[in-house]
Amino acid sequence: MDHTRDNPLKRFTAFWIAILLVTSFGIALIITQPFAPDKTDKAYEMMGEGRLEIKEEIDRVQDDALNEAALAEALQAQIKSFGQNKESKGSMPVPGAAPAPAPAEKPAE
Q1: 38-47 — which CB contacts under 8 Å span 24+ positions?
Q2: What span, in angstroms and rounded, lies between the C-alpha atoms of 93 and 56?
Q3: Is 108 helix (H, G, I), strand (E, B) or coil?
Q4: What is the pLDDT of residues 28-62, one digit of tens each?
Q5: Where are the domains of the chain?
């Protein structure tokens, strides 16, 4: 823009005109949205119902096949195996560190 034609009033006016155009476009979209055609496909809905029936049948069969007693037994065995590792006390050995010295034995007299 040529510096002789530029002034703050023109910039201010251009800014508010742009804001007004964007806002009016947004309002027009909101107003015309209910008149837009529905984009759901009837064939897709019918196929979806069939898929949901198949999924419900599969879920029902899986729930019936689940052996909860065996699962609880396996969880108890896992908990027991975790309880046996108490000697580590949660610390990990540092790589390259010297092993802990053995307790000094008193010489026999």
Answers
A1: none
A2: 50
A3: coil
A4: 999 999 888 877 788 888 889 999 999 999 999 99
A5: 11-79
In 3-state terms, what secondary structure has residue 92? coil
pLDDT of residue 37: 83
Q: How many angstroms separate the Cα of 24 from the Cα of each of 15, 20, 28, 76, 97?
A: 14, 6, 6, 65, 72
Cα–Cα distance between 56 and 52 in angstroms, integer? 6
Q: Compute the half-sphere exposure of residue 70: CA atoms within 13 Å on the CB side of its CA.
A: 3
Query: pTM above the 0.90 mark?
Result: no
Q: Using the 8-state DSSP alphabet, how is residue 34 labeled?
A: G
Instruction: Label residue 102 exposed, middle or buried (CB < 10 Å: 0-12, 13-18, 19+).
Output: exposed
- Residue-wise pLDDT for 71-107, tens only, equals 899 999 888 887 765 555 556 666 666 666 667 676 6
Rounded to an integer, what distance in angstroms lies between the CA atom of residue 64 and that of residue 67?
A: 8
